[in-house]
Specification:
This protein has 365 residues and is α/β, with parallel strands linked by helices. The chain has three domains: 81 residues, Roll (SH3 type barrels), CATH 2.30.30; 155 residues, Rossmann fold, CATH 3.40.50.300; 88 residues. Helices cover 33% and strands 21% of the residues. Bound molecules: guanosine-5'-diphosphate (GDP), magnesium ion and zinc ion. The site of magnesium ion has 3 residues, from helix 6.
């Protein structure tokens, strides 16, 4: 994305993924006055946006730095710039959004959901033919895709390094019906294998453990070393260079690919409903246990244990379901508590209890 970059540049706004879902959100006045632009990269206090003809840096004013994480512009977002194209007028409604949960590790920090990528059409879940391969991790990423309503594709890299790469494909098929692409990410001839998803104006994001080959895949599909020439860096407070979170690259065939050094083993927001969908089989078994408070450990008449004995349910899958459900309810509970505390604090500050506030609302009617 810097001057030396040999990366393809968009020729129109449609090249960046602009479509009716976004254009219909504009009022006639906005259509006339404002310029839509896509967030290509995110810095701490600025964004790099592209409007189809020019790329520019837009400062994130106080209005945005103070906005709740989920509503802050993120990579892939569409914005409206003011007529002078200097400020963000409005963030357009997202078609899809991948969210993470940032847990308050230190005292005073909040557990909150944060948008980490917006308007993603396809999610490449990258894993490799070695010990990194893990069914439970695949299930996690598949849940993320399902929760965001994004089509998942499983990419299994490093097939050149494994004795029996097809074993990994077979193991993946047990977990999901999603398409699978087995590759050597360093092989420059692999692009045709990705043809169904690398379409003009489609935005693809990648998730996967560090070292599985995400950047390599991006470079190979782009046909040049974007990482070498296009990596966006900024200097942090200690004067060190740090790679910014995420940036979008335009591939030669017109697809847009999100490089995600920031999306690794982080906590994603799954959504309770999505978990119920993903683990429908388990949730259908639980009510069949003899005891309503069954812990599925040693109770007689346990439907979960029964399914494990007949081989219908894997212990690993059940444990993964339990772990993800616990994480989800822990995060939901934390956020609910914070919401209540915030409300209490607000009421205390204004010197009125929730009841007074209610009365006041009624009065106004
Ligand atoms: N042999 C082989 N090496 C690969 C493959 N994919 C990635 N690598 C290597 O694995 C290392 C990590 O790859 P990288 O793209 O940085 O992983 P990332 O952390 O997911 O971005 C690099 O040394 C790559 O050259 C592959 O399919 N085959
Ligand atoms: Mg990388
Ligand atoms: Zn049970």
């Amino acid at each position: 994305m810097n001057e030396q970059s040999t990366q393809r540049q968009p020729a129109s706004i449609e090249d960046l993924g602009w479509r009716t879902f976004f254009s219909t959100q504009l009022t006639p006045q906005e259509q006339h006055e404002n310029c839509p632009a896509r967030v290509m990269a995110v810095y701490r206090d600025a964004l790099v946006v592209h409007d189809g003809s020019d790329e520019r840096r837009v400062h994130l004013g106080r209005r945005w730095t103070k906005t709740a994480s989920q509503d802050k512009p993120t990579t892939g977002d569409w914005l409206l710039l003011d007529p002078a194209r200097e400020w963000i007028s409005r963030l357009l409604t997202r078609e899809t959004m991948i969210k993470r949960v940032s847990a308050g590790v230190n005292a005073g920090q909040q557990t909150q959901e944060q948008a980490i990528a917006a308007n993603i059409d396809i999610l490449f879940i990258v894993t490799s033919c070695n010990n990194e391969f893990n069914e439970s991790r695949l299930e996690r990423y598949l849940t993320v895709a399902q929760n965001a309503d994004i089509e998942p594709v499983i990419v299994i890299s490093k097939c050149d390094l494994a004795d029996a790469p097809d074993d990994y494909v077979a193991r993946t098929k047990v977990v999901t019906e999603a398409p699978i692409v087995l590759v050597n990410a360093l092989d420059p001839t692999i692009a045709p294998g990705f043809k169904p998803w690398l379409l003009s104006g489609q935005t693809i994001a990648m998730v996967g453990s560090s070292g599985v080959g995400k950047s390599t895949l991006l470079n190979t599909l782009a046909g040049n070393d974007i990482q070498e020439t296009g990596d966006i860096r900024e200097v942090d407070q200690r004067g060190r260079h740090t790679t910014t979170h995420r940036s979008i690259h335009l591939l030669n065939n017109g697809a847009l690919m999100l490089d995600t050094p920031g999306i690794r083993e982080i906590t994603f927001a799954f959504g309770q409903e999505t978990l119920s969908d993903m683990f429908e089989d388990i949730e259908a078994l639980i009510p069949q246990c003899k005891f309503t408070n069954c812990t599925h450990e040693s109770e007689p008449g346990c439907a979960i244990k029964g399914a494990m004995e007949t081989g219908d349910l894997e212990l690993r899958r059940f444990e993964n379901y339990q772990k993800m459900s616990e994480e989800e309810s822990h995060n939901t509970q934390k956020m609910d508590e914070q919401r209540i505390e915030k409300r209490r604090f607000k009421n205390r500050k204004s010197g009125e209890g929730p009841r007074d506030a209610k009365k006041k609302r009624k009065k106004r009617i």
